[in-house]
Structures
1.
Amino acid sequence: MEGARDIVELTTDVLDVGAISASVTHPTTGATALFVGTTRDNFEDKEVVRLEYEAYEGMARKQLGALCSELREKWVELHSIAIHHRLGVVAVTQASVVIAISSPHRRDALQAVEHCIDRLKAIAPIWKKEVYSEGEGQWKANKECTWAPTPPQGLSKWTLS
Amino acid sequence: MEGARDIVELTTDVLDVGAISASVTHPTTGATALFVGTTRDNFEDKEVVRLEYEAYEGMARKQLGALCSELREKWVELHSIAIHHRLGVVAVTQASVVIAISSPHRRDALQAVEHCIDRLKAIAPIWKKEVYSEGEGQWKANKECTWAPTPPQGLSKWTLS
C-alpha cells in the first residue's frame, strides 16, 4: 500500500503522542486509533513513584515486527502501524507505550489497536520495575505474559510490561 | 472521581492530538485510548480536496455532553473524556475529530472510545461538505445518522459528520 509503514521503536526518550499519531496518518486514511499506556501512581494499594523498563532489545524488536505482520494478516486494510515503547525510568503520568494504527475506515484501526496492546503484553520481552514510595521496588513478569522469559542477568524479579 | 473531567470542544483551530491525550491523563490512570478522524483524499472514487464542517453548536455541545454521561453509565471506571470536533475547513490528513478517554485499566478506555465515535456519528448535528477537485462540493447527512436533522438554512445538501 502506498506509503504504508511498520514502525517499531524502543527508546529512553519521552514519547510524543502527537508526532506518533501524525507518523501513521496518510492522505488515504480517515482513521487513526491510538493506545497510550501511562505510569499510574498506585499498584495493589502501594504508592508507585515511577516505573523502570528494560528489554531484550533485539528480541523485542523482532517480536514487535512480527506482531505488525500478524495485525496485517487479520486486518488487511490497515495502512501504517507504529509501536513505540519507552525504556528506563518513566514517571507517573508519562507514557511507557504508544501504539498508533491508521486505516481508511475506523473499525479496522480500532480493533487492531486493542489486539496490538493485548499481544504486546503477552509476547514482548520488556520488563518493568515498580518503585514504591516505601521500600524496594520489585522487578517482575507481566501477569499476562504467556511464555515468561528469563529476566536479564542481575535482576531477580521482573514483570513483563 | 478525583480530577475527572468531561471536555467537549467545537473549534475552528487545528486539533492537537498530544495535548488532548495529555488533558485526560491523570496519576490514577494507566490507559488512554484515542480516536483521530482525518480528512481522506477520496470518496467514492472522487478526489477530495478538503472537507468543511458546520454544526448546530448549541445542540451539538448538549448532545456530546449527554454522550459523556452515557459512556460513564456503561463504563463506570472511566476517568476523563475529551471530545474535540473541528469546524470549518479541514485539509487532507488533518483531524476533524479527536476523542481521548482515560481509565485505570485499558479495556474500559478502549471500548468506550469505539462506542463514543459510533455514537457521535449517529447523534451529533455536525454536517460535512466534501469539496472535490472537479465540480461543486456537496453538503450531506452522515449515512450513520439515525435522526437526520434538517440542515442549517441556506445549505441544501448535508452529511452528518
Note: The longest strand of chain A covers residues 46-55.
2.
Amino acid sequence: MARPKNDTFLRALLREPVEYTPVWLMRQAGRYLPEYCETRKRAGSFLKLCKTPALACEVTLQPLARFDLDAAILFSDILTVPDAMGLGLYFADGEGPRFERPLREEWAIRDLEAPDPNDHLRYVMDAVTEIRRALGNSVPLIGFSGSPYTLACYMVEGGGSSDYRTIKTMLYDRPDLLHRILSVNARAVTAYLNAQIEAGAQAVMIFDSWGGSLSHAAYREFSLAYLEQVVAGLKRNHDGERIPSIVFTKGGGQWLEAIAAIGCDAVGLDWTTDIGEARRRVGGKVALQGNMDPMSLFAAPEAVAAEACRIVETYGRGTGHVFNLGHGINQFTPPASVSALVDAVHRHSRGLAG
Amino acid sequence: MARPKNDTFLRALLREPVEYTPVWLMRQAGRYLPEYCETRKRAGSFLKLCKTPALACEVTLQPLARFDLDAAILFSDILTVPDAMGLGLYFADGEGPRFERPLREEWAIRDLEAPDPNDHLRYVMDAVTEIRRALGNSVPLIGFSGSPYTLACYMVEGGGSSDYRTIKTMLYDRPDLLHRILSVNARAVTAYLNAQIEAGAQAVMIFDSWGGSLSHAAYREFSLAYLEQVVAGLKRNHDGERIPSIVFTKGGGQWLEAIAAIGCDAVGLDWTTDIGEARRRVGGKVALQGNMDPMSLFAAPEAVAAEACRIVETYGRGTGHVFNLGHGINQFTPPASVSALVDAVHRHSRGLAG
C-alpha cells in the first residue's frame, strides 16, 4: 500500500523535504469537541467507546472533519495493555482510570504475563483496520501505547497519583520486582505496537507520561532502558513503507540527548523546552514533535496564532518538525483556537519548512 | 554578630571550604513529625501557627532537636505576602490555601500595592527575632519567600491549580496585566526578604514553585526577570556578614545556566537534574542545593543512605553543595529515614567535601 496523499507528517518524521510543517494535536479527538461528547454519551461509557471499533473510528475522524490536520491518531486508552493483563480497568466517576487489582504482591508480579495483542486486544486492531479503511488515502494513522514505566505507574499505584509513592517505594526498596514488571511491559508494548502496525498504523508513538517524575539516574534505569527495548523490537517496515516511531517523555527535556539516542525517529517535547535549542542538541539525529503550551489555546485567536508562529520560527528552516502541543489538549479548549493554530502553522511554515 | 558556631551551611553557599556537606530539608518542620502535629493542634489552625511567633519558633526548632541538621528555616507560609496585600488567605479543609478575593479584575490589579513588611507582616519579623534568640549561636536561620510568579499564580488562580488556566490565559491574552502584578510582587518580595534579613535571617531562599509550569520563553519573561529584580534588590550584607541567597525553580533544570546568571549565590535543584552535570554547567558560578527525590525516603534506611551517598558522590569533591531534597518532605515520611539521610550525608562527605 502506498503512502497517503498527504504524507507530510511521515516525511517530516523521516526528515525528508516537506512543503510546510505538519500538525496534529495530542488528544485531538476529545472532550473539547461537542461531537465527541455526543458520541461518548451514545456509547454509554468511555471504555465502551474504546472497545467498540465503529465508535472509536467515528471519534478518531471527528477532528479531521473540522480542522486541516495532517495525521489521525487511533482513539484508545493508554491502559488497554494492563487491562488485557487482567488488572481490571475501570473509570470511577470524575476520578480517572483505576485498576481493581493493583499489582503489588510479589506472587502477582511473578505471574504477570504479556498479553497476546491479537486476542484480548483484538478490539484495538479492529479499530485500526476500520479507521484505515475510513481514512482512505487521505492522511496517515498513528498507533500508540503507554511506555513500560508509565504503564507500571498505573499498575502499581492502581490509578493516577500525585506523588507515585507506592511505585517509588518499590523502585528504591525492591528494584528487582519493578524490573520484572518493566520487562514484561516492554515485551507487551512491543507486541502491541507491532500488531497495530500490522493492522495498518503508519507511525507509532510511545507516551512516557510519567517518566519525568523520576530522578535523572532512575529515569535511565527504569524508563529509558525499556523504551529502548521497545524501539529495538518495533517493525521498521510494513507493506514496503518505513514506519516511523516517536518517543515522548513529558518532563524529559533535560534528557533529550539520551532519548534521541535510543533509535527512535522522533522525540516529543513539552513546552518547557526551547525547540530551537533542542534541535541543536539532537544535531539532526531525530525529528522533533511539539511543543506549544496547551493553556495558550485559551487566549484570543490572534494570540494563539502568534504563539504558534513563534514556535515554528524557533524551530527554524528545514524539515524535521511536527507541530503539536506539549501535552494533550485541555477539555475546555475553544475549538476556534485549534483552527487558528492549524492555519497559522500551515501558513507561516510555507517557505520556512522544506 | 558573628557567624554561628556551625556555619557549614553558610560556607557551602559561599563556596568556602567545609569539612563535610551540610544538610537541611525543605519543610523539615512539618507534619511528618508527631511533635509538629501536636503543636499545630494546640495552635488550632495552620494560620494561627504561622501568625503566632512563639509557636512558629517552637516548630522551627523541633527538627533540630531530633536530627543533626545544619540550618533552621523560618516556619511560615509561602502566601503571607498576598495575604498582607488584602487577598484574604484561608485554608479550606484538606484543600490547601485559597484566597477569598482572587486577583482578576483590571481595577484590582491597578490598585495592588506592595505591603510594608514591618506593618502587616510584623508577625513574621517577630518570629525571625524569636527564632534567632532561641537558636543562640548554634546553626544559621534561613528566611524565605515565594517568587513573584509563584505568588501571582496563587493570587490569580485563587488557590492551587493543576493547569494554571486562569493565569496562563492572562499571560497570553493580557501580558500587561500580569507584568503589573509581577512588578508589584517583585517589590513586595524584595522588601519582605530584606526585612527578614534585618530581623536576623542569615540566608534567604526564594521558592519559585510554579515557574516550571511555564514555557521556555515565558519563564524568562514572567518568572526569571522578576527573580533577577528581587535578587538585585536584596541586602548583600548585614551586621558585617554576607547574606547568601538561594533561588529554586522546581522543574527548572533545563534553565539552570540562566538561573545561575541572575546574581544569586546558590541554585536549588529538583531530583530530575543530575547534580554532577549541573555543577559542570554552572562552572563554579553558584553553589547547588539539592536534590534527592523525597519519595526515596519511603525506602528502608539502608536504601535511603545509599541514595544519599550516591548524590554526594555525583556532586563530587569540594565545597559548594548543600544537601537537601528536591522538594518538600512528604507528610507520611518515617522520621527514621531523615536520621538515616542526615547521618549518611555527614559521614560520607567527610573527605569528599572541603
Note: Chain B touches chain A at residues 163-165, 168-169, 172-173, 212, 214-219, 251, 253-254, 271-274, 277, 292-296, 298-300, 303-304, 307, 310, 314, 326, 330, 332 (CB under 8 Å).
